């Protein structure tokens, strides 16, 4: 599976990429919204892992723009957030998010958590 990680934290991207690559997935990464959207359009990933809190534009901006892009609007998108806030998760789901994973991610279960949400 080709997975795009959009997260401003290099630490999160490195850990997630290492875990997902070890599980046999091809991993792309971006540290900001516009570059992530551009990668999604050119690379057509099977899944997007998206941080909600980023410095300039946030995950909600990404989701809103993604829904306007025919080529990528149906790509499943899992939110990664350090906040377990139901209101924020509901807002993300209303904007097309598939599910969510609480940060910090746990390397021992991360790949399985991602696949569980997709099912």
Order of helices and strands: EHEHEHEHEH
Helix content: 40-55%
Instruction: Describe the global form.
Output: globular
Mean pLDDT, rounded to whole units?
94
SS summary, helix count:
5
Largest sheet: 5 strands, parallel
Q: Count of DSSP E strands?
A: 5
Poorly predicted ranges (pLDDT <50, ≥5 residues)? none
Walk me through what this model shows.
By secondary structure, the chain is of the alpha/beta class. The protein contains 5 helices and 5 strands; from the N terminus they run βαβαβαβαβα. It has helices spanning 10-22, 33-43, 59-67, 86-94, 110-118; strands at residues 2-6, 26-30, 47-51, 77-81, 99-102. The chain has a 5-stranded parallel β-sheet with strand order 2-1-3-4-5, with helices on both faces. α3 links the parallel β3 (47-51) and β4. α2 packs parallel to α3 (59-67). The longest helix is centred in the N-terminal third of the chain and has 13 residues, at 10-22. It is globular and about 35 Å long. The protein starts with a strand and ends with a helix. 29% of the residues are buried. The mean pLDDT is 94.
Keywords, please?
119 residues; alpha/beta; 5 helices; 43% helix
């Amino acid at each position: 599976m080709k997975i795009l990680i959009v997260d401003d934290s290099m630490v999160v991207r490195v850990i997630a990429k290492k875990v997902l690559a070890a599980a046999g997935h091809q991993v792309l990464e971006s540290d900001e919204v516009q570059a992530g959207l551009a990668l999604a359009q050119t690379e057509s990933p099977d899944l997007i892992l998206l941080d909600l809190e980023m410095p300039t534009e946030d995950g909600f901006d990404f989701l809103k723009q993604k829904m306007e892009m025919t080529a990528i609007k149906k790509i499943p998108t899992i939110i990664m957030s350090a906040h377990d806030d139901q209101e924020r998760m509901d807002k993300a789901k209303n904007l097309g998010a598939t599910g969510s994973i609480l940060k910090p991610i746990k390397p021992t279960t991360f790949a399985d958590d991602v696949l569980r949400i997709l099912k």
